[in-house]
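pipeline: protein-struct stage 2 | run 1193 | DUF1048 domain-containing protein
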Amino acid sequence: MRIQDIIEGKKEWRAHMARVKGLPKDYQIVYKEIQKYLYKVGPVELTDGIDLLSGIIDLFEEGAALEKGVLEVTGTDVAAFCDDLIKDSKTYADIYQESVNQEVNKAMKKATDKTK
């Protein structure tokens, strides 16, 4: 990664966070919790940019403009809202599960080859 890419990424992130700060307080609170949740759950695409998070801000800005409460936009189960957003995304848990299965298959093949 070039230094210019890092600088551009930081500028993009700062602009993104400025949009978050422009939201009503209840939206900011829920956004930050969604952000933490997504970082823990780990959709792989989250590290490729801020498209998913920017989409959430777009949705929140629209809801705020319509004077809706944030939970009217997300529903009361915010974790379920997040899960629905990433349901078709590959997560780090998926990658780990695949690697565990591959390691088990390798070990089993090696063990059965020794017994032959």
